[in-house]
Amino acid sequence: MKTLMRWMGAVVCAMALTLCASAQDSRAASSELDKTLANVSIRHVDRTVLGENVVHYRFDVVVGPGKFDVIRLHRIVREKKPYLPIQTVGGVLLLPGGPNFFEAIFMAPLISQVPAWDQSIVVFLAKNKVDVWGMDYSWALVPAKQQNFKFMKSWGVERDAHHAQIALSLARAIRGVTGQGSGRLELLGFSYGGAVAYAVAGDETQQPRALRNVKGLIPADMPMKFQDQFLRDYYCTFQAADQANLDAGIYSDDGGVFDTQRYDLAMSAPDDPSPVFPGLTNYLAIEFVGTSTWLLNGSPIFWHFVAGYLDENSIPSDLRYTDSRVWRDLFGHVPPHFPMQADWDTDALFCGAVDVPFDNHLEQIAVPILYVGAAGGYGTYGYYTTTLTASTDITKFTVQFQPDDQRMSDFAHGDLFLAKDADKLVWKPILDWIVAHR
Q1: What pLDDT is stored for residue 284 in this prediction?
Q2: Where are the beta strands (DSSP E) in 22-120?
């Protein structure tokens, strides 16, 4: 414990010195940074050995004066000995989707007994000498029992992007203390996290170079803009519904609460009739939500979270690429609350009819970009956004196994991080890109 406290004391001091020194080239930037750091502190740290000297640190970071102004920073790294990481080839920070917990989507062995301890992208990268970081959004830490959500009224992409900047700055400071240098990091954003990552990279174009945290951008199955009008029209409908909820004083999307309830039924009474989907058992109901998501939300591109073997009614008999128990366990481990403003932000972004501030500098993003797509998710529809940036170093790939007219059963959104062969199909190309850009 004494070692940990001394280590954390050095981290906090280094964070202040590193960040404040980096702001010396701009008085305005320094003033803004002072405001950012005024309410930032580390409240709790824990360390867990995952295996083969790969460890997982968690930092609860206070980022504001409110009760729920807390994010969770994660670090997964291989160590020579406790608190002394090996020399890494680079660093990356991962942002989960919405609603996702970092550990659930990026560290499935922590929530499911099915995968081996090292079957996750973060351990895969750490074992290959990458310093891996991640963040849980503040809304992900709001407890299920919370009932008053007035504090969440304005929580959206801008707020999460601001917190991601704090996470990046803190990660760089800790890397400096632990011998990795304080250079910039790659930023991977999955799903909703992709919108946050683009927002971070865009905002940084307005900052002095010394204050920029992002070395390269990895949007994982997430666009910022759609070229096709039919998709813009589709999301305009959702934006209108989000606005109606906000106008009615509904500030939290509580889908995660209901997902947990359905998971509990699937585990306790898998063969009983589903109270939500007539004709399906509780077990099949969860499979159906994952494989046939497009039927539930009317997606014109057959978007789904995990790919399945579907009958003529789109009822799955099994999953194609992800173990069905892993999917069920993920389904039962989601944040209970998601900000309605964040729903509005992403739907408005895709709709394009209303100006949103967090895409204002998209065309000025010049860092290297790796776009990772899933044919049963957003897939190649995410390519268009990369063409709107100023980057001259753009790499794109989409995992596809089925013909174009069978998108409804192709490799899907969540399969990128949950599939049994994701290490070969997805994680290895990401690793190769990070190493090539070190």
Answers
A1: 96
A2: 41-51, 54-62, 70-81, 84-85, 90-95
**Least-confidence region, from 4-8, 62-66, 283-287, 417-421:** 4-8
431, 90 contact by CB (below 8 A): no
The amino acid at residue 212 is R
Residue 348: CB partners within 8 Å, gap ≥ 6? 235, 239, 242, 354, 356
Q: What does the alpha-carbon distance between residue 369 and residue 399 come to, in Å, rounded to a whole number?
A: 17
Q: Which of 334, 319, 332 is nearest to 267 (CA)?
A: 332
351 in any annotated domain = no
**What tens digit of pLDDT does each residue of 157-192 get?**
999 999 999 999 999 999 999 999 989 999 999 999
- The rounded distance, in Å, linking the Cα atoms of 256 and 259 is 5
Q: Which pLDDT score, from 0 to 100, does residue 326 have?
A: 97
Do residues 265 and 125 share a domain?
A: no
* One domain for residues 19 and 91: yes
The reply to whether 225 and 237 lie within a common domain is no
Domain holding 282, by residue range, is 232-338
Least confident of 11-15, 150-154, 189-193: 11-15
CATH code of the domain in which 69 resides = 3.40.50.1820
Residue with more model confidence, 375 or 182: 375
CB 370 within 8 A of CB 430: yes
Domain for residue 343, yes or no? no
Number of domains comprising the chain: 2
Whether residues 83 and 121 share a domain: the answer is: yes
Is the domain of 40 the same as that of 81? yes
| Residue 336 · residue 143 · CB < 8 Å | yes
